[in-house]
Amino acid sequence: MGMHYRGRAPSDPVREHVWSCSYHRPVNARGELLGLFEESLDITDRYRAQERLSLLVRAGKRIGASLDVRRTAAELADVAVPQLADEVLVDLPPAVIEGRQPPTGSAPGHGLLRMHGRTPEEFRTSPVSYPPSSPQAQSLATSRPLVDASRPGTRDGTGSAASHRSTSFSTSSASTSSTIPAREPG
To answer: Which end of the chain is less packed: N or C, by CB atoms within 10 Å?
Structure first.
């Protein structure tokens, strides 16, 4: 009989591991049970790689099939939550949500509308701005992703400006926020 077991090892109590376990019942020549034999193999890295690959396949099939920004944001949330993130936040200039070209020259992180929710059904829009020193404004100004684990207990979003879209994945248990600017093609 084979099965997977998830848990923490005494030698690594911080990280969750996945083991593939096989159980065998050795018997003697008369068919009497001698005991139970367990064989375990730590497959954590392979298991996580398979989970990431499955997530990428689902994301490729579901995200961005529509030009509707709201639908794309909801698709992103639907794929990412709860496997990758607790919540997805997408911040855009109002012009992008309205289907227009965003203004050029605006300061990163100012005058944005946040699309957020845990599920596509919960997605709503609210105004948001970020100070210039925030990870979101820095990410937009440099067009580079940032991971911010320095502020425990905070749940940050992302900002966007000009021809950028940003997405933030925030995990409350790890108190980490990733800000990822995405440039529209063209």
So the answer is: C
